[in-house]
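Example record for the data management plan.
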Amino acid sequence: MTTKQTTTALLAAVVALSAGLVNTASAMTLNEYMDQVRGQSNAYKGTSTQSEASFLKAREADLFFTPQLFAELRAGHDGKLGSPAVMVYDKMELQNYKLGVSQQFSFGLQTRFYYDLTKTKFVNASFGPTVATDYWDAAPKIELTMPLWGGGFGRNAKANEEAVRQQNNAEAYSNGAQSVNILIGAEAAYWRLSAWQDVVVIQEQALKAAQNIYDYVGKKQRMNLGERSDVIQAQALVEGRTLELQVARNEQKDALRSFNKFRNAETYAPVDKLQSVNYKALETIAVPTKRPGDRLDVKATEAQLIAARASSALVSERNRPTLDLSGSYALNGRDEALSEALKNSGQANRDTAFVGLNFKMPLNMGATSDAKDGAAKSEKAAELNFEYAKYAQDQDWANLTRNLTDARDNLKLLGRIEEVQKTKLDNERTRLRQGRTTTYQVLLFEQDYTSAALTRVKSAASILGLQAQLKQYQAASSEGGK
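Corresponding structural encoding:
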């Protein structure tokens, strides 16, 4: 094969790769690979499942102010002596049943509304013939408690609710950020392997071309039609191309290991041809000027700040003096038969009512003050972390869009450089045929063209990796509705 034929074959292979003309009918597409990652990667499934679990656990906060059904059962006896003048019995047996509804309201009121049934029996009692020794007490009751100072008017309850909700949200966003980063890394790994597959093909073609040139100039030298210097130059090119091919294959193996790691496959599990890069489309990508939303890690930091504020409020409320206003009201009925006791419980002239105050204050003022100061500092630290997270996000976004813009513009230049190198090599090949240049000059131009083609492939892979990082911000917007 002549130098012209060799160069033409190399050009055809490189142009086919650069223009994306390789047959991709059987290629694994990016969507197919990402489906494998989502379905097979335990790392992704673990973080995404934990994120979903944390969002569901955040619903626990909704239970703070919902009605609660409760039931109580107690049975026992009391054998202590009664009043000698009035009560003579061996022991008193009791059964108590309660069934009702309780609720904590967001404005602080705590309520319990329930039915209280008590069975009382005096064993071996001698109270006289008209005194019942075995009877039921039936009483519908309502109990109310309103905190007025520490935790007053629902501050404690609302802080508890917010702390539980935001702690789970922070965990959900944090795990969501990890799962998004796994997908971004997988997408970058896909394009990296795709690029190195193309690089290996280019290097194989370059080595083949170098070997053909070496064979060609060697034949001319043996026929005393060429210089030995051309043979030495061609041999050096073959050795250089061999090394470059070996390096490219090693990089391809490393890319394959990363590719398979993301899909939880065997280290060197083979993969068919991947989807080719659309270089023309990458040269015209639109770089977003406005950030679509916050990253999930920033949302996690924001949730941690809200949780820290709620925790600080809880510490402050817990260490204040408490003054609770309480009240209870009950209607009472008593009879030896349960049904009659229930009927009698509606009589208002046998009601029971109480109103009271309950006060409590911690006496260790130093510890109380330190606890409040510590909570305030934790809140301040969370505010600083959030402010830095927002600042870092702005800087990362600016760097990402700047790098993406630069990489896109560079790819356009690399495309033009590759075309110029192709034209230059075609022209030099013609001059060699006309005897107006040297084999060495053609070798140099081939090397320049191959280098331009390889640089363009790697630049495109870099752009695709940067594009994948944009999804950090898009994913943050979609998670906001959870």
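Summary line stored alongside the record: Residues 284 and 408 are 7 Å apart (CA to CA).
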